[in-house]
Amino acid sequence: GAAITADDDFQNLLNDTLNLHQRFLEKCFIKLYEKQKGAVTGGIVNTRFKINKKGSIENVEITRSDYDDNDFHLCVEEVFSRVQFKAYKNSARTVDFPVQIQVPL
Questions:
Q1: Which of 4, 17, 103, 105 has its CA 20 to 30 A from that of 33?
Q2: In angstroms, what is the C-alpha Rg of the chain?
Q3: Which of 89, 39, 90, 104 is nearest to 68 (CA)?
Q4: On the CB side of 8, how many CA atoms lie within 13 Å of its CA?
C-alpha cells in the first residue's frame, strides 16, 4: 500500500527518534567504508517500514539505495527494527523514510 504522508508532529517524532539511532547507522556505514577501502560517497538509502500500535517497527525494507551492498542494507534494516517510538498513540502505519548518508571527514 501507499505510504501515508506524515503530519508535522509525526514527522518530528520520526526525525527525533531516528536521530537517536544515527550513530548505529554510522557504524553500518563505517563497516561499508572499510570494506570498500574508502571508495564510497555520500548518498541516500530509502527505507520503508511499518510502525505498529505499540510503536515498534516491523517489516523494514530498503526500497532504493545508492549502495549495492547487502551487508550494509541488512545492518540498516537491523538498526531500524530495534527502534521504539515512545508515547506512540496512532494506529499502525507504513512510513517511507530516506536515510542521508554522509561520509565522515
A1: 17
A2: 14
A3: 39
A4: 0
- pTM of the prediction? 0.86
How confident is the model over 39-55, as a mean pLDDT? 94
* HSE toward the beta carbon, residue 95, CA cutoff 13 A: 25
Signed CA dihedral, 63, 66, 70, 75: sign only? negative
What DSSP character marks residue 91? P
Q: Which three cell numbers stand for residue 88?
A: 506512540
Split at pLDDT 50, 70, 90, the class of 87 is confident
